Amino acid sequence: MTEPGQLLYGVEWPEGSGQLHYDFAMRLPTIGDNIAAIENHGVASNIRINTAMMASCLVSLGDIPPEQLDFALLSRLVDDDFDTLATARDALKKKRRRPSSSLPATDSPSLPSAATASANLPSAS
User: Fold this and answer.
1) Of 108, 118, 13, 123, nearest to 62 (Cα)?
2) Which of 97, 102, 93, 55 is nearest to 74 (CA)?
3) pTM over the 0.85 mark
4) Is 58 exposed, middle or buried (0-12, 13-18, 19+ CB in 10 A)?
5) Residue pLDDT, tens place only, 28-42
6) How far apart, in Å, are the Cα atoms of 70 and each of 22, 46, 60, 123?
């Protein structure tokens, strides 16, 4: 499952070329992505970990070769574009989430009460 989207400002690649890339597709991050980000970037900076995770979850970004979709590339994003990627990640999580039941949980159907049952009986008169 992937989430497509478009960056607002794009990322320049190759650096210095003036060529901006906007269209992206992202997959759902996994705990493996989190572990790899921590192992490669430490735990001192949450934004570094999140950037590394975003880079590992990008399936495509414009015409940039997949092997170039890394921490260094995403470190050059405008902060609003980082937020766009975070929104796509959150949309994927929402799609993957277990559906909640819209029906209330009920026990087995109850039997009519004695008062209700006797009201439906024919009278003896």
Assistant:
1) 13
2) 55
3) no
4) buried
5) 999 999 999 999 999
6) 16, 17, 11, 84
Residue 123 has pLDDT above 90, yes or no: no
The encoded tokens of residue 56 equal 């590992």
More confident residue, 105 or 67: 67
Please answer whether residues 41 and 48 qualify as being in contact, where contact means their C-beta atoms are separated by less than 8 angstroms. Answer: yes
Taking residues 112-116, report their average pLDDT.
Answer: 51
Alpha-carbon span 70 to 77, nearest angstrom: 12
**Residue position matching structure tokens 């929104």:** 87
What does the pLDDT look like over 10-27, one tens digit per residue?
999 999 999 999 999 999
Q: Which residues contact 50 (CB under 8 A, 6 or more apart)?
A: 37, 86
Q: What are phi and psi of 112, to 5 degrees?
A: -60, 145
Q: In what order do the strands lie in the sheet with 2-12?
A: 2-12, 20-27, 58-61
Burial of 85 (0-12, 13-18, 19+ CB in 10 A): buried
